Sequence to fold (552 residues):
Amino acid sequence: MAVLTASEPEATRSAATPWRNRAVDALIALLLPAALLLLWWTASDRGWLAEQILPHPIYVYQTLRDMIASGDLFYHIGVSLQRVLIGFCIGAGFGLVLGIAMGLSERVEDYVKPLFLAFAQIPTLGWIPLLMLLVGIGETLKIIVITKGALVPMTLNTFAGIRNVSPRYLEVARALRFSRWQTLRLVILPASIPFVFTGIRYGLTHAWTSLVGVELLASSEGLGYLLVWGRQMFWLDTVIIAMLAIGLIGFIMDGGLNRTERLIQRWKRNDI
Amino acid sequence: MMSKPAHLAIHNVTRQFSVDSRTVTALQYVSLTVAEGEFITIVGASGCGKSTLLRLGAGLDAGHEGEIRHRGDVVQGPSLDRGIVFQEPRLFPWLTVERNIALGLENATVSKAEKKRLVDEHLELVGLAGFAKAYPHRLSGGMAQRAGIARGLVNRPDVLFLDEPFGALDAITKAHLQGELQSIWAKEKITMILVTHDVDEAVFLGDRVVVMSPRPGRIREIVQVNLPRPRDRTSSTFGDVRARVLQSLNGTAHVRDPQPVPTETKSVLPRPAHAIAAVG
Fold:
């Protein structure tokens, strides 16, 4: 039987933000883009910039429709996404393993971390000239560059996550006589999930930006290529569309990860 | 004539730490024998080494001189026979209350069904039956500490060490939980050793109150509490014992420098022995 009666008030939390607030938030977020669009429109109408440099929004919209209709846009997006996906998976996977290894073992940290930090200091694009000579300008180059982009933040964040596990939790593990494996599985890994997720988000962002970089330099397809090609042809409408696509896809990926993170870390949410 | 070994025997324990290349003596020649099923409370100002003593007993700290034996075996590291409840509940926020409590059975050799039964039983015992599936962030401080106590108890340890378990709670919740802990102790008959800086709590819960003084941490006096349970905090006899403990704590009594107590099995003593003042 219960030795005690519930006497403390149950902790209550406010429910999710009402949809009206969220709608207002969304409107506020759209304010700045709308203002920019208006500025662009006005600038084109008034001819503040030459049409070759800043095409009219309506003209860009027509090109966009053409590119969607012809399948060109989605083809290039598909190529880019595939590269990012492969490179990100390899980079994040290795980063996770490396971060865990460095976090758990001071010896691995001593051996690997200095070189890794130096390696991380070289911007992703700085690797391209050397890599071009080593592997050529094919798919391998792009995958390696993207992998590197994802690897660095993933490794460093995972490492930080494991090192930041509270010694208080580790003491509980010790008091309960957890084996090394139990401590890893039940304490260290779950405790470092928030850091790992930060690593995933930064990793994906880096992978995406590295992709565009490498496609700018060496590619015949993909969104980065679209940018270069548009510039060379002086088709600024294509350039603008490619830029918008890059930004929008990055934004969606980050948002998707954010949602996944909250779903996985339900225990952090206040409104279960 | 040797009878069966003491339930928990702390013998001439000295523990020193080096802090900034200085040596700090946290405990000096501390000796205490705890009987099975006894409720010992240890009270003292901060820095008197009471938490160090508790951690040594639980096997979470080491590097001491002297000896701590549990059922005759020298304490070397943590054991499932010795549970611990910390000041902060230290629940894992990513696990539900029931999973947190089940962690206490992670290394116990019980079947899955038995595990479930034990967890439910202890949820019930600490009054959290309705919160099995809740995550810790939804619990108030008092409820979280109940879960912490359940996790310490679920494996049926021989001794439960409690390190200022109610130190962070408000006065009303604290009084509630003290009453509840007492009922649990009376019901489960587990030896409990509780560290506190709250004299009222020490007298309310302890069969004996161990009063410690700081620099170096040592036992000043052990006060026997011969009051029927559950105790009435407002009774005059309760007030008498509390006054006795406070007096000792405030250092009105003269205290000798700590000395080692004689070891029964050894004939040669490290120093001349004095018995530590023990009041009945």
In short: The mean pLDDT of chain B is 86.
